[in-house]
Amino acid sequence: MAEDAALISCMIDLRNMGNHNADTGFKSGYLPELEKMLFEKLPNSGIKARPHIESRLKTLKREWAIVYDMMLNTSGFGWDSTRKMVTAEDDVWEAYVASHKEAAPFRQRSFRHFEELSMINAKDRATGKDAQSVENILQELDIEDLTAAAEEADVNHSNLNESGNANTPTSGDVSRAH
Predict the structure, then answer these.
(1) Rounded CA gap, 165 and 176, in Å?
(2) Rounded to whole angstroms, how far apart are CA atoms 93 and 87?
(3) Torsion region of 20: left, alpha or beta (phi above 0 gives left; psi -120 to 50 gives alpha)
(4) What pTM value is reported for the model?
(5) Contact 143/150 with Cβ under 8 angstroms?
(6) Are 10 and 38 in contact (CB under 8 A)?
(7) pLDDT for residue 116 is more than 50
(8) Residue 92 exposure: Cα atoms within 13 Å on the Cβ side
């Protein structure tokens, strides 16, 4: 949605201009400022601070919090930065959705602005000594995905060796080849 992209872009601009406090969020009076900024980007949209921007920000923040909590507080979830979607095995999804019904739509639905909203909202959500930047969180998820893939490859390799496949070198065979 073009309006969402413009709104989030304006929010990032406000944050970069210093109209955002990392501990408490945007400073008072930010809604009229967002309205002006959106008018410049989308002059014929008729988007007003109240009710349009205020309502959309609540919805975006609620959706972001669902995805953020799912990925950060539950093992087994990842992020596909190409498709902009949460990823998980079926059993992980089913177990999570059983107690978090609001997360169900995100199994099939992309959340295009997750990274940008994380830059804006993460400090509101994650507090204390363990709070992380979204870049660190996404990097950590990528590392977990790579580690899981490597472990799976090791298991597959071990299974081939144990099956007695003569064409698959064992670790001893590899070291003798050097």
Answers:
(1) 18
(2) 9
(3) beta
(4) 0.64
(5) no
(6) yes
(7) yes
(8) 13
Task: Quote the radius of gyration of the chain (alpha carbons, Å).
Answer: 22
CA angle, 103 as apex, 24 and 2 as ends, to 5°? Answer: 65
Q: What is the pLDDT of residues 24-69, one digit of tens each?
A: 567 777 888 888 998 998 888 888 889 888 899 999 999 999 999 9
Distance CA 71, CA 66 (A): 9
Q: What is the pLDDT of residue 129?
A: 39
Token pair for residue 63?
Answer: 């959706």
Alpha helices, H only, the chain: 2-16, 30-41, 54-73, 90-99, 114-125, 134-162, 171-176
What amino acid occupies position 17? M
- For 79-109, write each residue's pLDDT tens digit: 999 999 999 999 999 999 999 999 999 999 9
Residues 98, 135: Cα–Cα separation, whole Å: 29
CA distance between the termini of the chain: 58
| Residue 94: other Cβ atoms inside 10 A | 11
CB 71 within 8 A of CB 27: no
The proportion of the chain whose per-residue pLDDT surpasses 70, expressed as a percent, equals 64
User: How far, in Å, CA of 88 to CA of 3, rounded?
Assistant: 30
Distance CA 25, CA 71 (A): 22
